[in-house]
Amino acid sequence: SHYTGATSAGFIRGGYHFAHPDSSSGATQANFFLAHGGGWSNDGITLPGMLDIEYNPSGATCYGLSASAMVAWVKDFGETYKSKTGRYPMIYTTADWWNTCTGGSTAFSHDYPLVLARYSSSVGTIPGGWPYQSFWQNSDSYSYGGDSDIWNGSEDNLKIFAKG
C-alpha cells in the first residue's frame, strides 16, 4: 500500500531489502526481494532496489562473515539483481559498518549507487571508494514520519537516475 500510495501522490518510489547474510545466499535473498516488490523498471518513477546492509540487530555485527565473505555475499546479491532487472541495486550502509564488515571494499563504488546513513549535520567520510553518495539518510526522524533521506542532486537528476 505504501508503494502504490507513493505513486498516487506523485512520488518517485522504491523498495529495500534488509539483508541477513547469515541466513541464506545473496542470490536467494535477491530473488526473494524481486518476487516481493523489489524490482526496477525504467518508468522514471521507480528507483533501483536498495540492499540495506548494516548492523545485525540480533547477533554478530558482521553476521559471522569475514570481510571477503561479506564482499562475496553482496556481489552475489547485486549480480543476481542486475541479471533480472538490468540495473545494480543501491547499497544502504554506514561508513563504520562498511569499513568493519567489508574491510572498506571498493568493489562496488563504480556500479552500485550509495545510500549513506549518518545521522548528523554533514555526510562525513564516504567509505568504499565511492566518490559521493546518491542519497544521504541524515535522520531517523522526519516531520512526515519515517527516516529523512536527501538526494544528492536536482529533481531532474533524480528523474534521470530513476529512469536508468
Using the CA coordinates, give the radius of gyration: 15 Å
Helix percent reads 25-40%
Strands in their spatial order, largest beta sheet: 1-2-3-4-5-6
User: What structural category do the secondary elements indicate?
Assistant: alpha/beta
Q: pLDDT below 50 for ≥5 consecutive residues: which ranges?
A: none
Mean pLDDT value: 93
Query: Could you say which overall geometry the principal axes of the C-alpha atoms support?
Result: globular
What fraction strand? 5-15%
Major β-sheet annotation: 6 strands, mixed
Order of SSEs: HEHEHEHEEEH
- The number of strands is 6
Write a brief structural summary.
The chain has about 160 residues and is of the alpha/beta class.
How would you characterize the overall build of this protein?
The chain is 32% helix and 14% strand. Helix 2 packs parallel to helix 3. The protein has five helices and six strands, in the order αβαβαβαβββα. The mean pLDDT is 93. With 164 residues, it is an alpha/beta fold.
Which features characterize this protein?
six-stranded mixed β-sheet; 164 residues; globular; alpha/beta; single chain
Topology of this protein?
Blueprint: H1 2-8, E1 16-18, H2 26-35, E2 50-52, H3 67-85, E3 90-93, H4 95-102, E4 114-117, E5 135-139, E6 148-151, H5 155-163
